[in-house]
Every structure is written in C-alpha cells, then in structure tokens.
Amino acid sequence: MADRKAEIRSIIKDTKSLPTLPGIITKLSALAENNKASVNEMARVVSSDQVLSAKVLRLVNSPFYGFSGRVSTISNALILLGVNVVKSLAMSSSIFEMMEKNFLGLWEHSLGCGVAANIIANRLGLPDIEEISTAALLHDIGKVIIKIKLSDDYSELLSLIKEKDICMLDAERELLGSDHAEIGELLARSWFLPEKLIEPIAFHHDVMRSSTQFAKTSVVHVADVLVKCSGFGFSGDDYVPRIQPEAWKKLDLKEALVEEIVAELEDRLVDCRNFSLEIQSGSEA
Amino acid sequence: MQKIPINLAAAGMVLAKDVKADDNPSSSPICGKGLTLTASLISRLSSMGIQSLNVEGHPVKIEGEMSLDEALAALEKRFSKVADDALMLRLKEIYRRQIVRSMGDNNG
Lengths: 285, 108
What we know:
The structure holds 2 protein chains of 2 kinds. Chain A is an all-alpha fold.
C-alpha cells in the first residue's frame, strides 16, 4: 500500500500531463499586489485571453454567483466582484471546464456545493464568502485527478462501490490507500493555492484536522452533505455522508436556519439544473 | 408551485410568486403573483433577463422527473447509511418536508 501511495504521489508530481493554471493568474496576482494597478489594467490582462474571459463571464453569469445574465464585461465583473474574486474565478473556471468535459455528474455536484456554501456563509454572515464558495467548487478536485490520471483505478472504484455497497471515500482508501481529499491537497499544494482553499479541499471529510481554516472547512463539509441530501449531481456514490458534529457545532446551525438554507438551496438548484441542461445541449450542438 | 425556465413558460400559466428584476429580495416586483401569463408578457420578461418563473400547479413535465412517492423513496435510500444518527434523521425530516412542499401539488 505504501508503494501505491508513492506511485500516486509521483503521478501527481508528473506535471507534464497535469492540468495547468493559466499564466494570467500569476499576472493578475502581481497586479493585485501593486496598489497602483487600475481596474482597467486588470481587465485588459484578463480580456487579453478571449477564451478565459468567456469562461469567467460564463461562471459569473451562472447560478453559482447569482448575477444571472447581468455581467457582460470583465471590467464590470472586476468592479462588481473585486479582483480576488475575478482571480479565483479565472482559476476555477479553468479547473471547472476540465471537470465539465470529463465528469458531468461531479461538475454538477461541485456547482451545487459552491451554491450551498455561498448560501450557508451568507446566512451566517461569515467573511470571505467568495473564497468559501470557490473552495466548495473545488473540494472534489482530487476525484477529477483520479478519473483523468488513474482511469483504470477509477473504473475499478466504481465496481467496488457497487459490489460492496460502500461510499466513494471508503472505496478509494481500500483500493488506493489514499483518497480524493489527500490527492486534491497534493494538487492544490503543487498549484500553490492559498491555505484558505487547501484546507477545505484536504479536510472536507475530516474537519477536525483543519488547523487554521476550521470555519471555512466546516462550511464546505456541510455544503457537501446538503448537496448529497438533495441528490443533485453525482460525486461517485448516492449516499449521504454523516455530518461531523464538530462542524455543526462550529457553525452553530439551528434547525430553523437549516430549513431556510435548504429551501433556498433547492430553489437555486433548479437554476443549476437548467444551467447544466443548457450546457449539455450547447455541447451537443 | 413549480419553478420553470422561462423558455418553457406558456400563455395561460399563473404566476405563483412575484417576479423580481434581480436576486435582491427587497427590490419591488415587476409582476405580481396571481397574474396570468401571456405570450407578449413572457417575451418581455425574457428580454429583461428573467431566467425562471414560479408558476401555479405543476404544468411542465420534465423528462426523468420523479413522482412524490419516488422522490421520497429516493430520499430514504440516500439516507440509508446514516439511519442510526439522530442529527441526520433531523436533516432527513427537513428534506422530506421540503420535497412535500415543492411537489405536493404534483399528483393532482
């Protein structure tokens, strides 16, 4: 099993076939640190990549951000959402596209999870709402890597889940000696993502291991569970995982509030479903 | 009540909720609930960027959509691994109520 782990590690480290982040992210980071950079300059940087701009605008206008159909330019997005959000959008739209192509059910699950995290963070009045949503959007990135880079194992995982009637996480641990959270963490570190994003990706199944981002990790964990409760999308198995009481306690969730969150989430998931159908019919055409 | 994408809306359907210009709940509505839709109203709303409407009853049958009983059975199945957990049972109950609320007029 230890060999297997080392093998997975080396597969992740072999960056040649690993999806890369666009160079624009680095440029944007540099500009964002320079206080004198204007919104126009930043808009120019993003707009210089047509494909990326299109992807960013599509994500801004998706039900994920709730600005449906109203943001038409990158500078508009920068003013409305701020530089950090556009930066994380540029990043997640690239990763998200890779998910959409390879793994529609997971893409839907991730979109739903981003929406759920957004609602929870909003209702609880937490800071960094956009970052929490982005973390939720990316929380299962490890599964994409398993599917793309360990495709034989992936089919074996699916049969194992069926045969033993277990959840994806247990099947991964049994077959790979690792799991998507750990693999996602490796990837996130190799991309030098901020800790705010790494911890929710790494610990969304084990919130107590989160050291500095406990609240964010808890939101992503609860969002993941709620979307599984809804049965929206497909993340490898159909079972609702147990909510970790520590996360529940940390967020101080009361039943009446959860009821409101669920109602809002279900309403937004209808939009997500339509968005997904639109995309599917668009890609067939 | 059913929430439908605006391209599936048809004349004669009745709004079950106010239509608002954006997601800001405090903005004033463009159309009030109870209003019967017409073709020209639908195209006007559509050109204003409205993407979905909540209408009375359950006029649109979406492919693959479950009946209330099927939806509740699927909910039970999803929760089958955590049936021994008190917190999860409470959560399941919240979802059960939500499903009944949103699909209650489905079978009528």
